[in-house]
Each structure stands twice: as C-alpha cells, then as structure tokens.
Amino acid sequence: MDKLRMQTNNQADVNFRKLAELFPNIVTETIDENGKTVRAIDKDLLMQEISTAVVEGREERYQFTWPDKRKAILAANAPSTNTLRPCEKESFGEFNTTENLYIEGDNLEVLKLLQENYLETIKLIYIDPPYNTGKEFVYPDKFSQTTAEYMERSGQLDEEGYILSPNMESNGRFHTDWLNMMYPRLKIARNLLTKDGVIFISIDQNEVENLKKICCELYGAGNFVGEIIWQSATDNNPRQISTEHEYILCFAKDINSLNPWLIESDKAQEIITQYNLIKNQTDNIQEQQKLLRQWIKRHESELKGVAHYNNVDARGVYSNSTNSSNTKPGGYTFDIIHPTTGKPCVKPVFGWRWTERTFWDYDKNGDIEWGKDETTQPHVKKRIETVKEQFKSIYYEDGRASTKQLEQLLDGKKIFDNPKSVQLLSRIISFATQDDDCTILDFFSGTATTAHAVMEMNAKNGTHKKFIMVQIQEPTDAKSEAYKAGFKNICEIGKERIRKAAALIKKTYPEASFDSGFRVLKLDTSNMQQVWYTPTEYVAKDLFELTVDNIKPDRTDGDLLFQTMLELDCPLSSRLESFTINEKKVYSIADGYIMACFETGVTDETISKIAQKRPRFFVMRDSSMANDSIAVNFEQLFKSYSPDTHLKVY
User: 3-class SS at 251?
Assistant: First the structure.
C-alpha cells in the first residue's frame, strides 16, 4: 500500500510539473501553518486556459486583472477559420525556394494560424508593439470601449448611472484597451517558442510595469531573463526628470534551458585587425607592442573593456592584468621557482588560484608572464582571442541614427519616425540565437528592421537564420511623407525596406551567399465555401439541383497549397516544385512530403503515377476526379502503391 501511495505521489508530481510548464500562471503559492511554501494548481485558472467559455471561479485571489481580461483569454483560445493566401507578385527573390516570410494581416489571427505549424519552433521573438499613448489602436479585437462603458465595467457608476467617485480614472480605459490587445498575442507567442527560446519586447514607461506583470503571468516570473535600458534620446525639455530611455523586457520559455549568453567581442576583433596590420609593418615584437599601444590609446574610448589587451609576444596580443591570487583563503600553496633567479616567487595571501600542474601547462605553452625577479608574482597571459562579450543591461545608441539610416535606404525620403535600430536588433539576435539555423519572428514588424538585421547577420557570419515578419495593413496618413512617396500602408514600407536592404547587403558583402528573398502571404477568409463547414444546412434538393463546389470560385491552386501546408503542419517556408503527369500539373511541397493536384479530369492512371512517388500526404479537389469511378478507386490505388500516404480531398 505504501509503495502504491509513493507511485501515486510521484505521478502527481510529474503531472504538476507538466501543467506548471505549460501554464505558469495557474500555479499558486501559499504558506502553511509550519511556514513552508506550498505550490498548487488553481483549478479555475486551469479551466480558463483550456476552455472557450468564461469560467466563473473564486473572486478573492491575488491576481493582475482588468475589465474584459477574461475575454482577452478567450480571444487567445478561440480558433480561427481564416487562411493565408500567397501573393507571388509582391514577393521578392525566388518564391519557390526562399525561406523567409512576410505576412500581412491582424497578427492575432496570424499567430493562431502559425500556432500548429510553428509550435515550439521559434528560437527568438522580437516585437515593438504600439506604445500606449492614449490613441486608438488599429488592431480589430473589438475590445475598444467608450469612457462610459469603461466606467460601468470598472465599477465607477452606480446602478442608476451616477458617478460613485470624483476620481474619473480617465486614462484607465486606455490601459484596458492596450492590455486586452497584448494579452492574447503574448499568450499564443509563448506556444511558438522553442524550449530554449526567448521573447524581447520594446516598451516605454507608460506600460512597462503592466507588460511585465502580463509576462510574469504568462511566462512565469522565474523565466524573467532581464531588462535592457536603451538610452536612445536626449531630452532637454524643462521638467523634473528628463526621460531619455525606453525598455526592452526579455522572458524565456524555460530559463533553465538557456546557456550563458557570450559572443565574440567586436572590440577585441578591432584590436586583432590592427595588430595584424602592424605585423605587416615590422617583425620586431617590441616595436609591434609600442605601435599597438599607441593605436589603443588613440581609440581608448571606443575600446572600453578591452583596452588593457595591449601586450604583444610571439603568439600575439594578450593582457597581463589577470589576478594570480585565489579569491578567498584556501588557495594552492606550492612553490613557483623563478626561471632567472632560481628562488621561490612571493605567494599571494590566499594562495595561488590554479593547481601546480595547470600553472606549468600554461608556462609550457608560453602563457605565463614572469616578473623580473621572484618578488613579482607571475601572471597568466589572457589571449585576446578568448575575450567574450556579455549582454549588458545598459545600451546607448542615438535613435536618430536609425531614422537617418532608413531615410538613406529609401532614397532620402523621411517616411517613418523612430524605426528600431538594426545594430540593436543584430546585438539581440547575436546573443539569443547562437545556433546558425533558426527562425526569428517579429509580429509587430513595422519597417521590418528585424528582417534587415537577420539578412545582414547571415551575410556577415555565414549563418542561415530565417525571418517571419507579420504586420497589419495599417494605412499611412494621406498627409504624410510616406503616403506622398507612394506607400499606402505600413506593409508597403516594410517590404520595400527589405528589398533595399538586401541590395545594400549584397553590395557590402559581395562574396556572401544569403537568402535575400521573402514570400508574401496575406490573411483572408477561408478558401472553403460554407457548405464545407456546415453541410447539414444544405438540404438534399439544393445539393442535387445546384453544382456546389467546396472551394470559393476566386481561389487559386496556390491558395489551396498554402491552406494544405497550414492544415498538415508543414512550414510555410517549405520548398515548392511542380511537374506534369499525363498533362496534369502536380505540386510537390518539401521535397515530396506533400503532393497535390487540383486539375480537372484526373484519371486512375494519373493517380497511380502520383501514388508510386509515395508522398506522405496527397491532396486533391473533389471536383478534380474525372468520374465517379475515380472516387471509388482513389483510396484503393494508394493502398496498393503507397499505403502510408494520408489522403485529403477538398
């Protein structure tokens, strides 16, 4: 009985950990009578997570809430019947082979569609959502409230409509709108992240506290990685405290799955480059060191953190400022005999920091710098090639530089204020995605700075990172410079920026090979007629008297192909090919993983030849079959030639 109870408890622990990992916000903590912390699952919150109906539960619990929060939760859980339609004419590069995506449409609906195909596959999400300045949002979530509606829902009016308090909370409505807009998007975004994935979110002071609370609820407070303070402006306006910065919050899917973020130091690389130039001028090591120190002194402000790497020996550049002493009592106390005087070197008070064997291995490799005699402690030479850079929480870059860069890129036209920095995005990507092949998502893509940074990094470093940009078709103001320049919405600016950036990067790195293209997909209503979803609403008479096609008449083969990819969990960046069998066009997705034929008059012979190619999935239209006998033989033919193929008919 005790063994059974132990097994039951162990299984309960496993189940608890799984639920806590999937839904961090459902875990509650209380203090028992012995003063110990007890963690438990809140059943009401769990049901809210998995339900598409509002779950009534206990009202008196500590939680971060606001009017209509439950509807925001339901908005994330509600399924989408929309689809993504390809637009090849607005795409760039090789449409059939590019692995980059530019998706136009409401990002909440797009995220829902991506959720199956890209579940736990996105390594990095960066977003720069609309800052809450009290203006209207363009995101159509139907959460926008009038002041009267907000006052009623937030309890500021009595039953007869009279104001209960002179404190109007006139800005509270705008907090509510913004929170309702962000919550479902961040909730779905977490599902897309790999276990070691992270999300970075730019925000200003108006909503940074609320944003952090939302993320702590959705991602778990323990998965808060850190906060970057970006000083991007100079504010000389007369006030109490001038605001010259904004924030970038970072949360992990599972912080325990992250490795330390260290990258090669660009500053150290500058010193290495200069050293190599000096080596070409002279072979004398003392002269090399003299010239290098002179150069470092002239550029000291630009080389902060690595300027002490100013020593040169036969192996290259190093620093001798390492500490030989152990950091606390208990270090190693062996004797180190000076090679010139033959006497033991003076020992640190806490002892040496390395073992005797390690020290002499360093010496054997030429990595010990000796003093002139035994009165100076020897030091390990730290080679400049070993320098790694950490991701610091303070970042400075004048935001005007990004505006100028975009202006120059778009033929000198100032069409967008305050775009994000390519340099900053490159820095984030460098630290957070140290594997060469991964996918980066930005679902508030704006001017597509993230895409620019990804392409530039691929060209510079030979990596194969892919981007997915998502942007709603927000119209430009008719009086704006963007509109006058021919850009009718933000998407047009973003797509043109990627094209121009690709050309610039190719010019900057002429030998580089990188994916400079992108597929344009546009959010739209389903490709299917209503009869596909509700066939019982069509009586037999309608079906016999009318020729009812499941597919809307304006939809193309390409539309059906991408719907197929969405429904069969195939990445939307998969390679597309087509070929002819018996004069019928056949499509191949992801090297034959999916095959499809939407032509009319498809015969048994054509189906047999497709089946012999043994795709994982085969898709066709119901109206494609030449006659009724084809429909009868369809499945049998595949059972004969390719029994493992899954069949789908629209």
Answer: strand
